[in-house]
Amino acid sequence: MRVMTWRLISALALIHGWDLRAPGEAYRIRVPPQLGVITCVAAESGTDPRWLVAGTTAGALALVDLRFGLSVAEWRHPAGAAAPIDSLAMARSAGGGGGHSGGGGARPLVWAAAGRDEVGRCRLTLSNPR
To answer: How many domains does the chain have?
Structure first.
């Protein structure tokens, strides 16, 4: 099955999602404005994406749970606005079960380009990104 959702980022720190198979918005999520202006987003691929991550001009990452339409966690680059997030890519770590349960399984991995020639990778969890 092909995913038919478009994402649009507004100047008001909103992430809009439109499902082309249905009328109206699929979701509208507000990223806390103190994190800065959204510069890029990345989401899981597949027919049932759960996570979306947004990068900002203030060097922050905001993790969004698409099932509930909530910004659930945020992290900041130690250099702050001196290291704005320029680009993001998302994948899943190796593990069983697809990661949709509370236990083990695959977790979202995010690669972020920030600041001057810096690329980092972290495995996102709600309590402690690594």
So the answer is: 1
Instruction: State residue 19's pLDDT score.
Output: 77
Residue 13, in any domain of the structure: no
Is 56 among the domain residues?
yes
Q: Tell which residue, 37, 5, 38, has the closest CA to residue 21.
A: 5
Q: How far apart are CA 106 and CA 27, in angstroms?
A: 24
Domain span at 49? 34-123
| Model confidence pLDDT, tens digit, residues 9-20 | 776 677 878 877
Query: What's the DSSP call for residue 124?
Result: -
16 in Cβ contact with 8 (< 8 Å): yes
Query: What is d(CA 26, CA 54) in angstroms, rounded to the nearest whole number?
Result: 18
